[in-house]
Amino acid sequence: MHNPEFFDHRREFSRTDVERGGIPTAQWRELMAEARRRADAAGFYRFPLPPALGGRDGSNVAMAAIREHLAWLGPGLHAELSHEASVVANLPLALVLHEFGTAEQRQEYLGPLVDGEIELAFGLTEPAHGSDATHLETTARKDGDSWVIDGAKRFNSVVDVATADLVFARTSGQDGKADGITAFLVPTDTPGFDIPYYHWTFNMPTDHAEVRLSGVRVPETAVVGEVGKGLDCAQLFVHENRLRQAASSLGAAQFCIDESVRYAQERVVFGKPLHEHQGVQWQLVELQTEAELVRNSVQKTAWLMDRHGKTSASGRVAMVNYRANQLACSAADRAMQVHGGVGYTRHKPFEHIYRHHRRYRLTEGTDELQMRRIAAEMFDFKSRRGSTTR
């Protein structure tokens, strides 16, 4: 293996630039970029993108199968856990720009983003507001032919290398309402755009920045989509991401289950193979049964999105995201237990899988938010009280 220090027990030390706030090292970023270039040259990186972007308009059903398969192979450059990198593109911001961007924005940002020449960040979460995106404290006010943005963002991923940040700010309307929030493409070198620090996290390295915006001035052309309708962009971003997260979590869970079954057949304890002990069998049986049920639900949900639109099947997307992400954590934890002491070491990948997929129970909406979305459909809260995006 080339560059083994990035994949074995040393991985976080090799990947993390401690002197620069814990962000990814330049060498690690370049290794991921090289994997991306090779995948693109091989012709499959752009598979899920529209033909206009050089893709084949891959369906949600196909992408769910691909994401599961890649995670099922275990951690590696083919599906790098820490950075959502994959040899088959996961570029929701490319889809946002393709659908909502102006011709000028697509020319400046979309082509370079797809080609891997630039990165774009996504600034929605705030210090005082996480899953509830309708109570943003970041504001933007019109000043002549410009907008002036003030506020703060948290866990603003990829900002360390991003050319611009897609910042969501309230421009009108009431707190708690989706209307009145606008999306802006803000170049990261704009005066007043500052990164005071990066959050060190359970899984390192980190690119989850704290961002402060103080009198950040951008032109009218920075608006993405309609003024006051910015959460339409966010909805497209998170909806598709939630399904793909679920598929990846399912694949990671299946990897942990398979590795545990293999080890249980090899390991001898108390004079007989580990797998002959029912206490071990039944725990893995429960996980495998759950994995199969989640697999069927993921595929059905993906099919419904392909049939009725990417922002349809909201309750089902929440269901599979909630259950699949919990399954990945349970399977990784059980794999550590089945493997005993060696399972707890970094010579096995289970602790790495657990730490990454534990993040998924927060990032695209918490477990509790997913349950709230399911309840909203069951009890028709949406039509009676309005709804939030995240």
Task: Describe this structure as you would to a colleague.
This protein has 390 residues and is of the alpha+beta class. 47% of the residues lie in helices and 17% in strands. Strands 5-8-9-12 form a 4-stranded mixed beta sheet. Strands 6-7-11-10 form a 4-stranded antiparallel beta sheet, with no helix packed on it. Strands 1-2 form a two-stranded antiparallel sheet. Strand 1 and strand 2 (23-24) form a beta hairpin. The chain starts with 10 loop residues before the first helix and ends in a 5-residue tail after the last helix. Residues 384-390 have low confidence and may be disordered.
Q: Which radius of gyration do the C-alpha atoms yield?
A: 21 Å
Number of strands: 14
Order of helices and strands: HEEHHEEHHEEEEEEEEHEEHHHHHH
* Terminal-residue CA separation: 41 Å
Total helical segments? 12
Mean pLDDT figure: 92
Largest sheet: 4 strands, mixed
Low-confidence parts, pLDDT < 50 over ≥5 residues?
384-390
Give me the secondary-structure category.
Answer: alpha+beta
Topology (elements, then pairings):
Layout: H1 11-15, E1 16-17, E2 23-24, H2 26-42, H3 60-72, E3 79-80, E4 85-86, H4 92-100, H5 103-115, E5 120-123, E6 139-143, E7 146-157, E8 164-170, E9 181-187, E10 193-198, E11 208-219, E12 223-224, H6 231-266, E13 268-269, E14 272-273, H7 278-308, H8 314-338, H9 341-344, H10 350-363, H11 367-378, H12 381-385
Parallel strand pairs: 5-8
Antiparallel strand pairs: 1-2, 3-4, 6-7, 7-11, 8-9, 9-12, 10-11, 13-14
